[in-house]
Amino acid sequence: MSALPKRVAVIGAGTMGNGIAQTFAAAGVPTSLVDVQEQFLERGMQAIRGSLDRFVKKEKISADEARQILDRIAPTTAMQCVGEAELVVEAVSERLEIKRQVFADLDRSAPAAAILASNTSSISITVLGAATRRPAQVVGGQVTSDDCTQWTLACARALGKTPVEASDYPGFVSNRVLMPMINEAAYCLMEGVSSREGIDEIMKLGMGHPMGPLTLADLIGIDVCVEILDVLKDGLGDDKYRACPLLRRMVAAGQLGRKSGKGFYDY
Fold first, then answer.
1. What one-character-per-residue DSSP string does 56-91 give?
2. DSSP code, position 103
3. What is the mean pLDDT of the chain?
């Protein structure tokens, strides 16, 4: 297999899924974007169109190049499309039972030689791979083959990305470091240590962060933050990852951040 696959399927048309599909399509790879409902697909395609429009306005790509990228993306609700894919990337909800089922389905539908990958930010790749008969071809798990790892690294570089290897532990590196910071920022707000603006401004000015932790939580999704913290707590058995009660209260109230129009801030 060459550094880039001949065809890719991305499962899940949400924020991460549509971005992954756009990245492969921009690299010239025909890409199927799969979701369970047409409305989710249309929302994902609209996000891609908006992103490409911004690139055109910034003169990073031409209008013709934007059209070509869109033409390479085939939105569909039919999982059968993975039957032609050399690489399938799962980007569904951050819930173990949903992801395990998707991997079991992909194992039945994807070609025997296809590589399976997950966009998970916290769930064990080894557990997901165990739902298949091809764990050596599931990127990032305990028994992932060296060939699979090396091809994936080469693919990422061919996309213009910088791959970094990490062992299969709950939260990996990014969320194991990031989520306790967001959680502690929520505790600071709940306990009245400072205002939401104050907390964010201190982390931007004092720590050089491009955005404050509460703004970032709104961007990620408060519900996603809680789900990741729960995975960290259960997987590592450490109460330091216990989600702040304020975060849980916000989720219960439907205040999920940007996607719901209200989180720590109003949108």
1. HHTTSS-HHHHHHHHHTEEEES-GGGGGG-SEEEE-
2. H
3. 96
**Chain segment 50-102, per-residue pLDDT in tens:** 999 999 999 999 999 999 999 999 999 999 999 999 999 999 988 899 999 99
**What letter represents residue 18's amino acid?**
N
Whether residue 199 contacts residue 218, with contact meaning beta carbons closer than 8 Å, is answered with no
Assign domain 8-158 to its CATH architecture. Answer: 3-Layer(aba) Sandwich (3.40)
Considering the domain 174-260 in this protein, what is its CATH number?
1.10.1040.10
- Helices in the chain by DSSP H: which ranges? 15-26, 38-57, 63-71, 96-109, 125-129, 146-158, 174-190, 196-207, 213-220, 222-236, 245-252
SS3 241: helix
